[in-house]
Amino acid sequence: MLRYVFKSKGGRVYRGRYRLSDGPKIYDVPLHTENKEVAESKLRKLVREQEDELNGLATPKSLREAAQRPITAQLAEYVADLAAQGRSKKHVALARNRVLRLCEQCGWVKLGDVTSDSFNAWRASQTELGPKTCNEYLGLASAFLNWLKRNQRLAFNPLQDVAKAETKGKERRKRRALSQAEVDLLIERSGKHGLAYFLAAYTGLRRREIQQLMRSDLHLDAPRPFVEARPSTTKNKKTALIPLMPALAEALRVHLAQTSERTGKVFPLGVPTAATLRADLKACRIAVRDDLGRQVDFHALRHTFNSMLARAGIAPRVAMELMRHSDMRLTQTTYTDVTLLPLFNALEKLPSPSASLIASLKCGFSGPKEGKPVQTGSLSSGAEIVGSSSKIGDMW
């Protein structure tokens, strides 16, 4: 085994050189001492520790050091790395604040304190946070722990096997899509706010994306007008080319022609806030919250866009692309309001049964072979209709 101490030419302190048993690589390290015996002792200890780690007889030094440091100090380094990666300010703030809250309420001071049991106990004690929010806390904490693992500060993520909380049927905020009549009414009677609602409901653009929309992002003179959403404004940080229907493109041209400016934001005075939208809905006599507890907010206009695509019979794959989703299940379930789908109209398109089949049912005849009698009669008053048990909107 190669191992010796030396002084560089003109140097006052010793350095060490050594080779481990796993290969030919020679390591050169500073020993920070002018005493040769001390230098040799430090080098022997260093080589012994690394050999033990190499042979699985000792915990790696990086793990030992990280285990002794406060979690909050390492969280600060993680947050700084997120910012350096270009993550949004909102995401960076959520990562810092929510992991800090977990550290305080779960009693996590050092990495050894982080356990699945402590997180599960914290989640079980939550009365104000819904299951979706608790899942977000779990996701942010796991992202931090996985970062520690990648940087060789943690052997494994102690929360990796924690199951997510069930969210179906437990949503705190349920959105509904607007009907076609409601969309038209909102756009028509909301004055200067109408164009922003028009743009959101017919492109699926998010409020933040509309807020950051620049004049240069609008390509209204193209053969087929479109919006080019920049990566810095989109949720997935990718460029998006969003088609504009002719009426919307014309409305945007009229809006831009009202000022002599050729640069700047499309909506320099801002986009309607949640409070403004509620006021506009009230003025149009559109319920902000329906009988099912579902509410209309700005993001509901994105749900409206997707539901209109479904009602128009747009192919799911095309709708997924227009919605800029990465998972078709999100397009077809979360963002589609089934109460606005023409379910009864769809059934009317099915071929009618033959007259002989209907006659056999009336007579209780089950077919050429013996079988159980076919139940006849109309639906009872409590029978469930596919779609919604309360409101079926335009399904008729």
What does this entry look like structurally?
There is one protein chain. This protein is mainly α and 396 residues long. It folds into three domains: 3-58; 68-150, DNA polymerase, domain 1 (Orthogonal Bundle); 180-340, hpI Integrase, Chain A (Orthogonal Bundle), CATH 1.10.443.10. Helices cover 44% and strands 7% of the residues. It has 16 helices and six strands. It has helices spanning 36-54, 61-68, 71-84, 89-106, 116-124, 131-150, 180-189, 194-203, 207-211, 246-256, 274-283, 300-311, 316-323, 328-334, 343-348, 355-363, and strands spanning 3-7, 14-19, 26-30, 218-219, 226-229, 240-243. A three-stranded antiparallel β-sheet has the order 1-2-3, covered by helices on one side. Helix 7 (180-189) runs antiparallel to helix 8 (194-203), helix 8 runs antiparallel to helix 10 (246-256) and helix 13 (316-323) crosses helix 14 (328-334). The longest helix is centred in the middle third of the chain and has 20 residues, at 131-150. The chain is elongated, with a radius of gyration of 32 Å. The termini are far apart. The relative contact order is 0.06.
Question: What tags apply to this protein structure?
Answer:
396 residues; DNA polymerase, domain 1; mainly alpha; 44% helix; 6 strands
